[in-house]
Amino acid sequence: MNEINITAKLFLLLGSANAALAVMLGAFGAHALKARLDVSLLKAYHTGVEYHFYHALGLILVGVIAMNLPANIWLKSSGWSMFVGIILFCGSLYLMSIFNLRWLGMVTPIGGLLFILSWVSLCIAILKN
After folding, report:
1. 4 DSSP assignment
2. Rounded to whole angstroms, how far apart are CA atoms 88 and 95?
3. Which of 64, 77, 101, 110 is the most buried (most CB within 10 A)?
């Protein structure tokens, strides 16, 4: 049996851990926050969960691709941009929603930009191999 390379293992672990976290936070929002947040904040929270899960799957994809392609700077950049994007985009939406810190909405687009960069980096990583 082949050992999984370190890059693949890292992003597979980050992706699966973030997928589990997204499910937990989604359940928390559906059960604990539904009656406590106004509609706009609940919608923002839901957007955070949705993008969190999509990009957790993206991290898993990066890990699977890293198992089959040589790890390069573009592939690693894709995974790290996706991970930091989760923290900034989703994290800002979670904190903004739960604590009504609307100023955190200024951080959200930075995370969104990192999501875009992560997918572009993934395209480049694939094209370069």
Report:
1. P
2. 10
3. 77
Cα 106 to Cα 15, 64, 65, 71, 80: the distances in Å are 25, 33, 33, 33, 21
Question: Phi then psi for 4, rounded to 5 degrees?
Answer: -80, 135
Determine the Cα–Cα distance for residues 128 and 69; give it in Å rounded to an integer: 10
Q: If pLDDT is split at 50, 70 and 90, which confidence band does 122 have?
A: very high
Q: Is the pTM of this model over 0.90?
A: yes
What was the pLDDT predicted at 129? Answer: 85
For residue 12, the one-letter residue type is: L
**What token pair was written down for 3?**
């050992």
Integer Cα distance of 115 and 57 in angstroms = 13
CA-to-CA distance for 23 and 18, rounded, in angstroms? Answer: 9
Distance (Å, whole) CA 11 – CA 68: 13
